[in-house]
Every structure is written in structure tokens, then in C-alpha cells.
Q: What sequence folds into this?
DNA sequence: TTGCCAAACGGAACGAAGTTCCGTACGGTC
DNA sequence: GACCGTACGGAACTTCGTTCCGTTTGGCAA
């Protein structure tokens, strides 16, 4: 995840043309398969959709988490970038926090099964945490600290814990018409507020 | 789940002695296996521990959910029974609600993986919902309504949604030292309070 | 006590899915 | 154009849930 970045170019051996082509094809196929069948779609299905062997998937993306991260990297980046913007736009940091959490919820609930896999901390999902959580936690912390500094929320809640919690609340969203995570996330954010 | 109850005895064909013995052995083995390896322990492991074939497990407990329900039935019953007691004991219904939710959290976080399976609504987990959720939702609703009637919380939150949410927040508890669901559950309950 | 039979048992067998491995193909370079 | 190492494909292996069926056995009636 840290090497083979375009840009600096130091010690990046430049992959073969067919490898680059396959990686792009796989990302497209995975994105489509995720939409259609959720992020837990069988590896074979993605391979078939991309017209490659399963070995090729494992070469490019050793774990399912690597593939998920690659597919959703742009959206995570957009979400992370929106944090400071919201903070600058809004007068009340608590408002910015609520909106930002809302964006995160929107992202999660539109991806079948993504919240489920976000919760795991097994070795296989190291990459997920490294890329998703580690990217978003600092943003969330900034929002929390701004709201706490403004005296709008009680301080002390850990950003990681909040994000994990919100992620957990989104588990199973969409598969149960009686359950709407947004209600509970709103309550959670309301609970933060100083009475 | 509804038949073969001791008691009334109408149309209960009385199972064979070996069947009853195996069922008890299986419950013990499953309870032990759940503690050691979580509720997702492989069926074969439970069978081996009980000294029976896998077919015997499926005969007594067609789905994993049936087994889980049978193992934890007593604890669920105790939790459900505690609701009215707490309500009678406490002056403030919101306090009773908070304590009761705390009991539910305690139950969930001490069972590896139980919260995970609680979230599913796939056909296989019908029994889980029928026994766990359907037993607890009315109790939770009673507490919510009492607190709303006392003017302590804003009305309108669905008991099912709250229980699902609390269950979700407990997903992954214990496998991540940085995540303590109790913090967030407390915030959630605090968020219910009328400001 | 003995014999019968349906209930119950055990575990082989099957299917789905993840993961590994290795012979083959091919892109890039000399 | 030849060479070499990267990359490919998919068969094979593993794990796990689930089903199925030949065998055993408990309960009962003769």
C-alpha cells in the first residue's frame, strides 16, 4: 500500500503493461460486483467478471480488504477532505461534526456489507483499518476537538471509538426495513451535546 | 421451538432417552465451545466435543441459531424478566432503561461473536429473532414508554431499532482494546433524554 | 424375554468458498 | 530475434456447512 505510488518514482520498478491493465480491469469488475452483490461477493465471481484467473486477483490484492480499499479510496478521500471544509463553512463545530458523520453514514449504507467488514480487526483486515480508519480518525478528531473547544460537546470521546461505533450502527443497514441507522447516529451525536 | 415443551404435555411424543441425553450433552458442549471459540465455532468442533456425529447436531438444532437460542435462553429470560423489576424499583424510568440496556450490553459483550449473529435477518437466523428479539423488544418498549410518559425522553424511538442499535454497537467488543461499546451506548441513551 | 420397527445415530459425501501453487505465456529489453 | 523474469490461469487443496443413507438402538408389545 505504501510503495508503487506514482510521483516520487524512487525505487518503483514500474509494472508490466498487462499487469497495469489487469489491475484496472479488476478494479472496475470489483466495483461492479460490489454494487451488485455486496463487498462479500465471491472472489471467483470478480475474477470471472474481469476475465482473469483467481490467481491474478490475489497477486494484485492479497486480501479482500486491499481490494475494497482500492475500490473506495476515492470516496474515503473525499469524505476525509470534507471535514475541514465543513468546519470552515459552519459556525457551529457540532453542526459540522453532525454533517460529516452523516456523510460517513451515507458512504457506508450505500455499500452492501461494507460496514460488516469494517468492524473486523483480524489480520486480514489490517489494510482496511490502515487506509479507512487511519485516514478518517484524524479528521474526526479535529471535528471533535473543535466542538469541544467551542464548549458544544463534552470532551473525552475518542475519535476512533466514535467512528467504530458509527460504523457498527450501520451494520445491516438496508437489509432490514425496520432498522434505520440514521436515527441512532443522530441520537448518538445528540448525546454528545452538553445539556 | 414451540413444541416438545414439558408441562402441558398435549401431543408431545416424548423423545427417546438417548435423544434427550444427546441434546443435553450437545448443549453443554456448545456452551463450552462458545466460550472458548465464540458462537461461530465450527459445527464439527461442537460435535467432536460432545462425542456425536454432525448429523446429530442438525437433527436437534437445524440451524446454528437454534443452538445459540437454546444455550442462552436462560440468560435472555433473566434479562427480559429484569425489565419490569427495574421499572418498579427505580423512581426514574430513564434510570431503569439505562440499567436494563446495561444488562443487555453485559450479556452481549461476554459472548464472543453473539452480537455479530444477532444482526442478521437472513432466513437462517429467523429463530434468533423469534426468540431473542421478540422476547426483549416488548420489555424494551415498556421501558421506553414509561420514560416517555414521565417526560424524561423524547418519544418516538422504536424499541426494535434501539435494541438492534445497541446490539450493533456491541459487535466486535472484546476483540479491540480501543473500542468500548459501553461509552457509546451511554451516549445513545443520553441522547434520548429531553434536553 | 424376545422380536420388531421407527427413532436416532454417525460420518461419508457433496458443495461453496478462500487460498496456494506451479507450469505456461508474454512484455520488455539487449 | 532471443532471452529472462514478471505475470497469468486455473487446477488443486483446505475448511466449513449441510445433506443423506446405511446402521444401531430404545421402547414396546407379544
A:
Amino acid at each position: 500500500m505504501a510503495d508503487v505510488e506514482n510521483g516520487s518514482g524512487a525505487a518503483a520498478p514500474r509494472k508490466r503493461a498487462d499487469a497495469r491493465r489487469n489491475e484496472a480491469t479488476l478494479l472496475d469488475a470489483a466495483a461492479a460486483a460490489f454494487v451488485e452483490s455486496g463487498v462479500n461477493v465471491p472472489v471467483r465471481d470478480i475474477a470471472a467478471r474481469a476475465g482473469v484467473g483467481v490467481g491474478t486477483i490475489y497477486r494484485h490484492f492479497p486480501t479482500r480488504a486491499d481490494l475494497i480499499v482500492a475500490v473506495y479510496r476515492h470516496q474515503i478521500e473525499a469524505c476525509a477532505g470534507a471535514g475541514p471544509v465543513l468546519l470552515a463553512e459552519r459556525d457551529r463545530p457540532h453542526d459540522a461534526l453532525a454533517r460529516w458523520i452523516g456523510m460517513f453514514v451515507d458512504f457506508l449504507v450505500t455499500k452492501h456489507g461494507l460496514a460488516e467488514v469494517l468492524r473486523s480487526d483480524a489480520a486480514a483486515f489490517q489494510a482496511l483499518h490502515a487506509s479507512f480508519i487511519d485516514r478518517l480518525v484524524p479528521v474526526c478528531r479535529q471535528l471533535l476537538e473543535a466542538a469541544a473547544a467551542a464548549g458544544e460537546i463534552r470532551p473525552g470521546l475518542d475519535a476512533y471509538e466514535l467512528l467504530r461505533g458509527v460504523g457498527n450502527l450501520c451494520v445491516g443497514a438496508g437489509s432490514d426495513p425496520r432498522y434505520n441507522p440514521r436515527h441512532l447516529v443522530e441520537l448518538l451525536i445528540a448525546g454528545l451535546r452538553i445539556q
Notes: The radius of gyration of chain A is 19 Å. Residues 64-192 of chain A form a domain with the Tetracycline Repressor; domain 2 fold (CATH 1.10.357.10).
